[in-house]
Amino acid sequence: MEVPVHPIEYRYGSEEMRKIFDISTRYILMAKVEAALARAEAKVGLIPEEAAKCIAEVVENNKISPERVLELEKVTQHETMALVLAIAEQAGPYGEYVHFGATSNDILDTALALQLKQAISLVERRLVSLTRAIIEKGRKTLDLVCLGRTHGMAALPMPFGFKFAVWAWIMKNNIERLNSVKSRAVRGKMSGAIGTMASFYGKGREIQSLVMQELGLEEAEISTQIVPRDSLSELVVTLALISSTLELIANEIRNLQRTEISEVEEPFRRRKQVGSSTMPHKRNPIRSEKVCGLARIMRGLSIAALENIVLEHERDLTNSSVERIIIPEAFLIIDEQLRSLEYVISNLVIKKEAMRRNLENAADLIMAERVML
After folding, report:
1. How far apart are the C-alpha atoms of 18 and 27, rounded to whole Å?
2. Of 99, 151, 277, 281, which one is the catalytic site residue?
3. Which whole-number Å values give the CA distances from 267 to 221, 250, 257, 275, in the listed order?
């Protein structure tokens, strides 16, 4: 049995999100791009129709395995070429037409766009679901009065549901942010070694358009050997921004659960869940703390994403290793944060008596604004 090394492999994120970024999906999508390329090239007369049909059949019937690609990569030291060889082995006499005229990042960037499209869609669903949970809890607590605080000090009375209204508005902004960056970040390319499409004999624009139409992607309007990394960096930064807004909510729940405030409590499975190995009375806000901790990682990932914007000439490889790490991590972390926070919000224990007690303890101070005005 293989033992996981990184917590992202088993502890954080859903299996649904993990599947999008696993090695099998990566190779399946890369092969799907190769098949779309072959069909497009056959349509414009660049390769034989029979070759395109054969290549597509190899891909669609899953005749290549991740194990074989990894085995070939040990020899080639080149991931895309290993995939090309794995397809060519199964394509027989038509193997020479696999990857015809393309460069590695035509395949890699377009396959990544397909992954991003799926991953963003899942994050959008999670954001909408969390927003609904926030709105529902806000409606139920709109008539509940609590003590508002500024600078950590007692300020004025306020509806507890007002907090949720603010959070719902922030989530609305998050949904809009993600939708906006998606239109720029999720784009494929088929433009050759330096972006001039020279290897496609004057039919590059048509080939790129046909490939992206088949795959359901927007085209990169212009590219070098790669799609410029500004939009991909913007996506990771946007995820980090969303992550920080989730931390804002989680941090408020943590503070309201403090013993001396005690106005809310995270859901706790009595007789099963353990708060502390030595203090059995503890009910720690562990999910909210997890959300806050993961936000720190996300902000770090955004720095790495910004570093990837600067590449030499028409591209170098310094972005590759970074993206292999930060893209799956960013999506798995935001996935974990959204799921955890939705569970906390949906099952949050509201302690009305504690709210009343805290208002009474603040005494006349909470009426200072009204008296002054």
Report:
1. 15
2. 151
3. 49, 13, 11, 12
- Its pTM stands at 0.93
Distance of CA 119 to the CA centre of its chain: 6
What is the full DSSP assignment across 202-245? T-HHHHHHHHHHHHT-EEPSS-SSS--THHHHHHHHHHHHHHHH
Token pair belonging to 88: 């060519």
Q: Where are the domains of the chain?
A: 7-87+94-372
Q: What is the pLDDT of residues 58-117, one digit of tens each?
A: 999 999 999 999 999 999 999 999 999 999 999 999 999 999 999 999 999 999 999 999
Listed in sequence order, the residues at least 6 apart from 356 whose beta carbon sits closer than 8 Å to its beta carbon are none
Contact 131, 345 (CB under 8 A): no
**Farthest CA pair distance, the chain:** 90
- Look at residue 277 in the predicted model and tell me its pLDDT: 47
pLDDT at 276: 46
Contact 211, 190 (CB under 8 A): yes
- Known catalytic residue: 199? no
Q: Which superfamily does 7-87+94-372 belong to?
A: Fumarase/aspartase (Central domain) (1.20.200.10)
Residue 6 bears catalytic tag: no
The predicted structure's pLDDT at residue 270: 66
Instruction: Report the amino acid identity of residue 309.
Output: I
CA distances from 17 to 107, 110, 263, 295, 321 (A): 22, 19, 34, 18, 20
The H or E element spanning position 155 is strand 153-159
Task: Name the catalytic one among 121, 276, 277, 288.
Answer: 276
